[in-house]
UniProtKB/TrEMBL annotation, chains A, B:
InterPro entries: Metal_Tscrpt_repr (IPR003735), Metal_Tscrpt_repr_sf (IPR038390). Residues 1-13 have a biased composition (Basic and acidic residues). It comes from the Bacteria. It holds the Pfam family Trns_repr_metal. One of its GO terms (molecular function) is DNA binding. It comes from Paenibacillus beijingensis. Residues 1-20 are annotated as: Disordered. This is Cytosolic protein.
Amino acid sequence: MNDNHQPDHTHDHEHKHRKQIVNRLSRIEGHLRAVKEMTADGRDCAEVLLQIAAVRKALDNAAKLLLKDHLESCVINAGSGDDRTKILDDLNKALDHFIR
Amino acid sequence: MNDNHQPDHTHDHEHKHRKQIVNRLSRIEGHLRAVKEMTADGRDCAEVLLQIAAVRKALDNAAKLLLKDHLESCVINAGSGDDRTKILDDLNKALDHFIR
């Protein structure tokens, strides 16, 4: 992943659910850590697979919330012209990775 | 999730890729932590969505490796009768959650 924190990529507005999304991602991180420990402990594969599926579902829900926030605050207020085109292009690319 | 470590749920054999799977899950955990920080920092939504999709893909690949290990070592050596039926039932349930 790209880890460069570029200031021009930050938002100048606040998202309604940002804190909630960060909290969800924290919980998912904890869940994933538990799954890793289950695997290291040699727990049943089917059980581990179920938990990985649960982590994936939780991730999808966090992404859905983020997407709804994004639609409400960024896309609707995107103005027009090049800015709007870029925002929609970026969003479409991200969706292509999500919905396969 | 169920966090009870029940000794009767551990395996009595070693999986070929267990250590590799644990390492992958560790890396995914680190990736997810970075995505959480991106979100907290207010980074662009489309960028965060792309990274969440990358985490999901990495999780799917870890699950696939686990499943292959499971097929090689547990399912093939499952013996017969009730044990085999339970192992296949559990695996089918896990797959139902994965492939939707």
